[in-house]
């Protein structure tokens, strides 16, 4: 089982995550699993680093007895112990472990909800990998995804304008909705604020994303060149107007340390 935390932030789109995923899909034709939930990048990195650390201390003799799982609903139990128990359960190749985690999500405290979701996904992947006897790839991003699509936050920038006129808004909305739908993408949301257009879209990793957007931008710009040719794309988080301006005007990326690709294999084949 392979895990990839894919957290990408790009402005020029010359080298982007879609190229990496298309390349990987050729090397690993097995099933891709995309984390659907939107979970903060810092929480994800904390979970998988914690998981990797504790994996070294887990062996068959020290595994949790699935018929006597510690009561992690106990409010007196330290939060770190609860995290440790969830991580250990996620490494046990047994449906009982998965069902326990799945049930716990209903009563888990708010601060542990995302942690439980990640443990549940890891447990599910381990079971599928074992039952199907094939490598699986788990793709995780800050904005999540659906099916074979990753969710992205995109920003277009107006050229020579302070805000988009009504006819420009209608044109941009209709052109991008049509272009994305025609390329098996889903436009979830589009908004206009000052000279910026923000979109949230689900995009299959085998779609030539750059070409779709550049072609659609060119179509819009036939009516006045009112949009810059470059655009901002991130799969880490949705950005507010202040963060957008900071990045575009000062090249200051919010939470810059999070915009990195991490390849991490939490479960070796010989350990299954």
The total strand number stands at 10
Number of helices: 8
Largest sheet: 6 strands, antiparallel
- Distance separating the two termini: 9 Å
Please give the oligomerization state of what you see. single chain
Which word captures the global form? elongated
How confident overall, as mean pLDDT?
Answer: 80
If you compute it from the alpha carbons, what radius of gyration comes out, rounded to the nearest whole angstrom? 21 Å
- Name the helicity range: 25-40%
Number of domains: 2
In the predicted model, the low-confidence regions spanning at least 5 consecutive residues are: 11-15, 253-272
Query: Helix-strand pattern, N to C?
Result: EEHEHHHHEEEHEEHEHE
| Estimated share of beta-strand residues | 15-25%
Broad structural category: alpha+beta
What's a quick, concise take on this entry?
By secondary structure, the chain is α+β, with helices and mostly antiparallel strands. The chain is built from eight helices and ten strands. The relative contact order is 0.20.
Explain this structure to me?
This protein is an alpha+beta fold. The protein folds into two domains: 2-10 and 28-144 and 261-271, no CATH class; 148-234, Alpha-Beta Plaits (2-Layer Sandwich). Helix content is 40%, strand content 20%. The protein contains eight helices and ten strands. The strands form two sheets. Strands 2, 5, 6, 7, 8 and 9 form a six-stranded antiparallel beta sheet that branches. The chain has a four-stranded mixed beta sheet with strand order 3-4-1-10, with helices on one face. It is elongated and about 70 Å long. The termini are close together.
